[in-house]
Amino acid sequence: MIHKGKVQTVLGPVEPGDLGLTLPHEHVLVDMTLGACSAEVLINQTESGRAAATTAQAGWEPGEDGPGTAASFRARWNEPICLENRADVARNWFYYGNYKIASIDDVIYEANLFKRHGGGCIVDQTSIGLARDPQGLQQVSRATGLHIVMATSYYTFEYHPGELEELDVEGVQDRIMRDIEVGVGGAGIQAGIIGEVGLSTTMHPREEKVLRASARAQRSSGLPLSIHPGFGPDAIWAAVRILEEEKADLSRTIMCHVDHRLASKPAPNSFDPDQWLDLAKTGMYLEFDCFGWEESYRQRGKIDMPNDAIRLNEIMALVEAGHGHRVLMSHDLALQHWQRKYGGHGWQHIPETVTALMRYKGFDEDLIDQILIDNPAEFLTIA
Ligand SMILES: [Zn+2]
Q1: For the chain, what percentages of helix, strand and coil (3-state, to nearest 5) are there?
Q2: Residues 284 and 337 reside in one and the same domain
Q3: Contact call for residues 27 and 130 (beta carbons, < 8 A)
Q4: pLDDT of residue 272
Q5: 149 and 252 assigned to the same domain
Q6: Ligand 1 centroid to 31 CA: how many Å?
Q7: Does 2 fall in a domain?
Q8: Same structural domain, 52 and 114
Q9: Residue 123 belongs to what domain range?
Q10: Other CB atoms closer than 10 Å to residue 173's CB: what's the count?
Q11: pLDDT range class, residue 42, cuts 50, 70, 90
Q12: Does position 57 have pLDDT exceeding 70, yes or no?
């Protein structure tokens, strides 16, 4: 059963007004290692991995598509995070195998810190393929009293389960609708958001199938929809065109990661505000979901990762153009070293630290509440 007018959490439907401060794009429990037993295996399996290995300092043996990682980098796999390696983990995390958050106790510790700083709700955008953990989410919600929303649909093609090859668009839509209407985990735990739907920079045919199925599931269920696009404007607009063809409700759809996906040219001047403004005109939500990530050394090609101050400047440009009701903010916290316990910024970062910077930069209290409370509640309410 779909609960129209409510927000579907892992413990049942709740009133949108009960959510409070909401992080719309996080990974409560997630594993992106694809079961890899070495950095080399992981790097060869994913677009992110290949991008991580392309720079000179990245530990890849020299040469075009070199045969593998250098010896000292191989040795880092599964090394526990400690003070001495913390800075190296931040720069070279692909080599450490901590591309996951798998300890429920660590997550409960982290979630309680968020709650103590005024947090109310976390949206777990861990779609199928990223080791989604419905019962784990219930444990975290029960232990902390936080509202937690579970995702459905599928991440990028490297993470697709084998059955997606056989299913047609209707078949994939049926799978997604089953998560929404009946629920999973043997206990009828129902999804409250479709996505993040994973798309690569060149959209894989199975990703297109999933995107179309997700748009149709949004139409028939009234659930919110969330898109993880490939890099660059072309990838983003390719996704928008398919959503329009499928008559998705763009006013209830997020484009994720716009703070480092919309760059169209190498730094400096990677970011052109007109691109955000054009995207906002579609009516979609623009999600600046990498708050706390201020690492300039991400091995990701030639674009600059903005810092939080720049993100807020970009958001203010959208607000001043009349798009404040289309902005969402989150951390996309998916790596162990981003948790407080391992030297990271944690889920408390936005309520504790970013809100202070927002005030300093001239965001008034109504605007802060709109972006951190009202916009996510409106987005999550089942239409
Ligand atoms: Zn994503």
Answers
A1: 45, 15, 40
A2: yes
A3: yes
A4: 74
A5: yes
A6: 13
A7: no
A8: no
A9: 7-32+100-380
A10: 24
A11: confident
A12: no
